Amino acid sequence: MASTEIARQAGEGARAVPLSGHVGFDSMPDQLVNKSVNHGFCFNILCIGETGLGKSTLMDTLFNTKFEGDPNQHNQPGVTLKSNTYELQESNVRLKLTVVNTVGFGDQINKDESYKPIVDFIDTQFEAYLQEELKIKRTLHNYHDSRIHACLYFIAPTGHSLKSLDLVTMKKLDSKVNIIPIIAKSDAISKSELAKFKIKITSELVSNGVQIYQFPTDDESVAEINSSMNSHLPFAVVGSTEEVKIGNKMVKARQYPWGTVQVENENHCDFVKLREMLIRVNMEDLREQTHARHYELYRRCKLEEMGFKDTDPDSKPFSLQETYEAKRNEFMGELQKKEEEMRQMFVQRVKEKEAELKEAEKELHEKFDSLKKLHQDEKKKLEEKKKSLDDELNMFKQKKTAAELLLNQAQQAGASTTLKRDKERKNFF
Amino acid sequence: MLPRSSALFIFGSQQQKNLEGYVGFANLPNQVYRKSVKRGFEFTLMVVGESGLGKSTLINSLFLTDLYSPEYPGPSHRIKKTVQVEQSKVLVKEGGVQLLLTIVDTPGFGDAVDNSNCWQPVIDYIDNKFEDYLNAESRVNRRQMPDSRVQCCLYFIAPSGHGLKPLDIEFMKRLHEKVNIIPLIAKADTMTPEECQQFKRQIMREIQEHKIKIYEFPETDDEEEMKFIRKIKDRLPLAVVGSNTIIEVNGKRVRGRQYPWGVAEVENGEHCDFTILRNMLIRTHMQDLKDVTNNVHYENYRSRKLAAVTYNGVDNNKNKGLTKHDTGDGMSPLAQMEEERRDHVAKMKKMEQEMEQVFEMKVKEKLQKLRDSEAELQRRHEQMKKNLEAQHRELEEKRRQHEDERSNWEAQQRIVEQQKLDLSRTLEKNKKKKIF
């Protein structure tokens, strides 16, 4: 019996002891299974592919039920993700299945951003789980896991190679989700073309470094079937919900004038292989890989982004408490710094404004000082004018007075001369 | 931060669907089974009780192996001055299933004269294991997380026949919210069935009185199972007998204790409750014990620890229990910091607005003052100008008057002069006349 993980973990420090009878812990797997069955299972599939590749039909065929709505049109402005959750039951097993469809994928002229909504959606589910995991009071065991466990990537049956949109999208997703590429509507390809197509696709994926999901081969009970299936990837599928009578059975098939493609006939397509691998054999592994690999990667990146580290510079491991405390102190320091900065900025502004206003005041005073000076000058001039006028007046007055005096004198002299003359005259006579 | 394109997600509601044919996910339980066997199982069991109560013997009987042996002596043989908490790991395999069993025992418990705080090392051990798991879970790089948390504690009660000792009550009160406690009456073969019944009832009464929460069997929908569980509940606490020796009874080889008056058989349901304990602990409820530890006891520890870190930054959760600091809405410390950041941003915005307002107001005031003084100065200037202008006009007026006067006078003078001239001319003429 191969060594279990637990045995490997135990290492030294655990001694193997023989049992002298039946203890009963071999019921542990059953106890675990009972618990899981009681709790119910949950599985989330993301279907990516251009409009019209038969995504919805394939889901209906895989799960033997009619899922949602009407076929979508080609005129979507961007890629939208539509998610629907269904509760299915098979024998005593309850499954909460969520099917997410990309609507409008590949329909736009510019498909540069097509992958973004998909990546965002996947990240959103991871983020939701991470937030729940980080809560103080959390209920992880009752949490409805919305993380995408499997991504079926629908490749158009051109028969040639992958489109660049396919390569770009798958490259962006391969570290976030388990990608299972499938060739859609493969009844449009002949057998020989199909073999070449599969080889081309696989080599293109390899040369572009796209990591698709490999069925696990470490558990020997399924190693053989898984590794043989791995060699049939990508699966070429045909979906149909219509039934056709073949022999005396009703089978799911597509009827053409030249023959009937039977969905569950392994010579016609790989549908059965897909169903085996996806649902019957590896569903649990897909969930495990999502949690242990893709989610952990997301979580690690997110935490590193936020500045969390596992060891301090001296390589001593941080305890959780220390990490949070350190984060919190850093955070509070940051906030305080911001506050200080804002205050400083205001102080600065006040200073500047004060200086401005002072300048204005100074200018004003200068202006009025100069006006005042002007005014003084005017006044002085006025005074001078006044003075000169006064001088003139005085001069005039003097002149006048002098003239009057002269006149008086002249008059007096004249008067006396006249008198004399008169006297002489008088005397004459 | 969540990505911003959430506007592109459309979620439909949940619907029930019927399958119209074989799908295959009914095989999921098998997948789970297969993976769990591949992984292997682990379980940590703690045994606590005074020395000599048959703890090691019971463990050996439970697991049908010499876990404790002369080379690996049990707790009562390892005399300690103070209570120690020690663990031994064994790997056992059965039916293809591997189990890593860790037995934690407490030599020295209850053996001293003064047993105050002899439970503290036990509490510390359990908390340390929780802490280890919490740290492992919180690392950025998480590997396989070995789970060494104590998943069940078998507490051995001495068969006094009277009731619980104060030490028993104290221990269970302090540990019932940290670990699944299964109280056992040790060495049950020293009591008659009636004594045992009475003792059991007394113990259960005291347990209820002190509100001690011992491990409870989960309810199921299965009627059969529930009936079974109720029968077990009536027999709590389980009275057990252990033995390392095999004795032949009626041709059968059984584990038992040989007395002059007969053999007390370990696995005989009429002699003691050992079989019930074994079936419950190992065969039916081992997984549930692990689940309760993980979902209840560990989560309690974790939320207390994280709440203390978030609010105080100081680990004082050892002294306080759940305080009012326990967030009702259960935010992660990071989400809490986010919220604090948002609050702070809002506060700063408000502060900024207020400061702006004050600033604007002051500026307005100053500007107004400036304008007022400008107006004042302007007014004065105007006045002075007017004044000056008035004086100017006055002066002009005066000048004009003077000019008028002067020109008048000058005109007069000219007339006078002219007159004078005329007169002198006349005189001259007269003079000349006279002469002749």
TrEMBL record, chain A:
Residues covered by the Septin-type G domain: 39-305
UniProt key word GTP-binding: yes
Coiled coil segments of this chain: 321-413
Keywords assigned by UniProt, alphabetized: Coiled coil, GTP-binding, Nucleotide-binding
Keyword Nucleotide-binding: yes
Gene Ontology MF annotations: GTP binding
Pfam family, one: Septin
Family: Belongs to the TRAFAC class TrmE-Era-EngA-EngB-Septin-like GTPase superfamily. Septin GTPase family.
Name of this protein: Septin
Source organism of this protein record: Knipowitschia caucasica
Phylogenetic placement of the source organism: Eukaryota, Metazoa, Chordata, Craniata, Vertebrata
UniProtKB/TrEMBL annotation, chain B:
Major localisation: nucleus
Biased composition (Basic and acidic residues): 373-408
Assigned keywords, A-Z: Cell cycle, Cell division, Cell projection, Centromere, Chromosome, Cilium, Coiled coil, Cytoplasm, Cytoskeleton, GTP-binding, Kinetochore, Mitosis, Nucleotide-binding
One of the protein's GO biological processes: cell division
Region described as Disordered: spans on this chain: 373-411
One GO CC term on file: midbody
Domain Septin-type G: 39-308
One Pfam family, short name: Septin
Subcellular compartments: Chromosome, Centromere, Kinetochore; Cleavage furrow; Cytoplasm, Cytoskeleton, Cilium axoneme; Cytoplasm, Cytoskeleton, Spindle
One Gene Ontology MF term: GTP binding
Family named by the database record: Belongs to the TRAFAC class TrmE-Era-EngA-EngB-Septin-like GTPase superfamily. Septin GTPase family.
Stored PANTHER family: SEPTIN
Protein name per Swiss-Prot or TrEMBL: Septin
Species per Swiss-Prot/TrEMBL record: Knipowitschia caucasica (Caucasian dwarf goby)
